[in-house]
Amino acid sequence: MSSLETWKKVDDYFVDQLIPEDPVMNQILQANKKANLPSIDVSATQGKLLQLFVKMKGAKNVLEIGTLGGYSSIWMAKALPAEGHLTTLEFSPKHAEVASKNMETAGVKDKIEIIVGPAAESLPTLEGREPFDFVFIDADKNNNPRYIKEALKLSKSGTTILVDNVVRDGKLLDEESNDPSINGIREMFDLLKDHPRLDSTAFQTVGSKGYDGFVLAVVQ
Ligand SMILES: C[S@@+](CC[C@H](N)C(=O)[O-])C[C@H]1O[C@@H](n2cnc3c(N)ncnc32)[C@H](O)[C@@H]1O
Ligand SMILES: [Mg+2]
């Protein structure tokens, strides 16, 4: 009974019950597929979770690291007030182009700016846009420690940071891993441990994206 197949069905049930069918969001996933983007976006329930975080925070200024086709960006942008703004960082010009079209399709393009380039180079240029209220980190996992440090510089007390894919089917536990993503995730946990400015937890997830999880950190 409790196979991954079951948990995928539970995710489908949640979507049926809680997330009204949205042809535009489906169209965006189709556009990503057509452009051969990897289907590594958040799931619909996770997109809704991001949207609810933005609502709960009353966030007006959001930062995302890792745009892909803009699926998660659009979920968040839809919860922003009229004067709200989302800055999203993406390495791949191709991904950014697909995302830009998707943002137009979803009617949220005026609220979003995509900055193309390696996030580690873009982040120090964001001074003047800070402080961000909510930060979503979902890019190259080896750089997670660096992204947390840079996000902190752009934060204020109460800024909430959410990091995706911190469990990776349990590979997180492999101390001897040769995978830079796993090492980046583990180094991020070392950084968060007893961090003077960050109050953090992590939670595991299962469903249409397999076994994974998020880190949630609030800036003191
Ligand atoms: C998991 S996907 C993002 C998914 C997206 N947040 C969503 O849920 O719809 C990760 C993205 O990060 C981008 N990326 C990888 N390395 C990067 C880097 N060094 N700087 C900025 N973006 C990077 C990839 O090109 C990819 O589009
Ligand atoms: Mg992710």
UniProtKB/TrEMBL annotation:
<keyword id="KW-0808">Transferase</keyword>
<dbReference type="GO" id="GO:0008171">
    <property type="term" value="F:O-methyltransferase activity"/>
</dbReference>
<dbReference type="GO" id="GO:0032259">
    <property type="term" value="P:methylation"/>
</dbReference>
<dbReference type="InterPro" id="IPR002935">
    <property type="entry name" value="SAM_O-MeTrfase"/>
</dbReference>
<dbReference type="InterPro" id="IPR050362">
    <property type="entry name" value="Cation-dep_OMT"/>
</dbReference>
<dbReference type="GO" id="GO:0008757">
    <property type="term" value="F:S-adenosylmethionine-dependent methyltransferase activity"/>
</dbReference>
<keyword id="KW-0489">Methyltransferase</keyword>
<dbReference type="Pfam" id="PF01596">
    <property type="entry name" value="Methyltransf_3"/>
</dbReference>
<keyword id="KW-0949">S-adenosyl-L-methionine</keyword>
<protein>
    <submittedName>
        <fullName>Predicted O-methyltransferase YrrM</fullName>
    </submittedName>
</protein>
<dbReference type="InterPro" id="IPR029063">
    <property type="entry name" value="SAM-dependent_MTases_sf"/>
</dbReference>
